[in-house]
Amino acid sequence: EKNKTYPGSKWTDQSFLKVHSRNAEFVRSKTVDLRNGSTVTEFILVGFEQSSSSTQALLFVLFLALYSLAMAMNGLIIFITWTDPRLNSPMYFFLGHLSFLDVCFITTTIPQMLIHLVVKNHIVSFVSCLTQMYLVFCVGVAECILLAFMAYDRYVAICHPLSYAQIMSRQVCVKLVSTAWLFGLINGIFLEYMSFRNPFCRDNHIENFFCEAPIVIALSCGDPQFSLRMIFADAIVVLLSPMVLIVISYARILASILGRASSSGRGKTFSTCASHLTVVIFFYTSAMFSYMNPRSTHGPDKDKPFSLLYTIITPMCNPIIYSFRNKEMKGAMVRALGRTSLA
Questions:
Q1: May I have one GO cellular component term (predicted)?
Q2: What confidence tier does 200 reach under pLDDT thresholds 50, 70, 90?
Q3: What is the CATH number of the domain that holds 174?
Q4: Going by C-beta distance under 8 Å and a sequence separation of 6 or more, which residues neighbour residue 132?
Q5: Per-residue confidence at 104, pLDDT binned at 50, 70, 90?
Q6: Which of 85, 201, 302, 338 stands 20 to 30 A from 241 (CA)?
C-alpha cells in the first residue's frame, strides 16, 4: 500500500514523499540563506575609530590644518592662473586645472573624515559610498591623464620652442583638458559598475576613512576576484599609459638639455621640470600601491598611509612645489595678495 503506483503515473507514494522532502529542505535552506544574507544598505567607516580620544583630537587638528592649507593654496593658484594676464600660457592653464582637480579630490574625502573624527556615528549610506567612489575614480583618472598632458607640454616647450605657440594653441589646450575630464567621467562609470556589480550581504565595516574600491569590493557577495582583476587591468591602462608618455617626454627633454652648452639654461630647465616630476612621483606611487598591488599584501596599517598620501598630502604639496620653484608663480602670488590687502 505504501509503495502503490498510481494509474497512468510512474510515481509511487514512497518516491513522491522523498521528492517532496527534498523540495521542502531546499526551500528551508534558501529561506535561511536569504535571512542571513540581508542586503547591505549602509557602511561603517572604521577609519581612526580605534584610536584614543586624544589621538583623534590631534588628528582632527592636523588634518584640518592640512585641508585648510591645501584649499587656500590651490584656490590661490586657480585664482591667479585664471586672472593674471602674465600667466597666460599653456603651462599655467594646465596648472590651474590641476589645482581645480586637487580641490575636488580633497573635498570628496577629507571633510567626511574630519566629521567622523568628531562624532561617534561613522555610518554612510550605500548611495553616499557609491557617489564618493565615483568622484574619486573620476577625478583621479582625470588627474592621471592631465599630468601626462603637462609632461607633453613641457616637452614641446623645451624641444620645439619655435613651434610651441602653434602646437599648444588655446584650442588644443582646451581639447586636452576636456579629454582628461571626459575620460575620467566615462572610466568612472566602468569602475563604479565593477565595484558594485555584486550584491553586498557580508560585513559592512570598511577599514579606511573613505570608501576605497578594493576594500569595498572585498565585502561583496560571491567571488570578488573578477572585479578586482578588471580594476587591476584598468589601473594598468590608466596609470601606466600616461606614465609611458611622461617617461618618453622627459627622456627627450633630458636628451635636449644635455645637448645644450649653457649651464644656466640647463639649470632653469631642470628647475621647471623638477616640479612636475615631483608631483608625478607622489601621485603615481600612492595610486599604484592602492590599485595595482595584490590585496593579500594590504591591511589597514598599510592602506591608510598611502590613502592619506594621495588624498590630502599630494593635493597640498602640488601648489607648494609649483609655487616655490617658479619665480613667475611667486610674483603672481605676491601681486594677488597685494591686491587683496589693498582691497
A1: plasma membrane
A2: confident
A3: 1.20.1070.10
A4: 108, 109, 112, 124, 210, 211
A5: very high
A6: 302
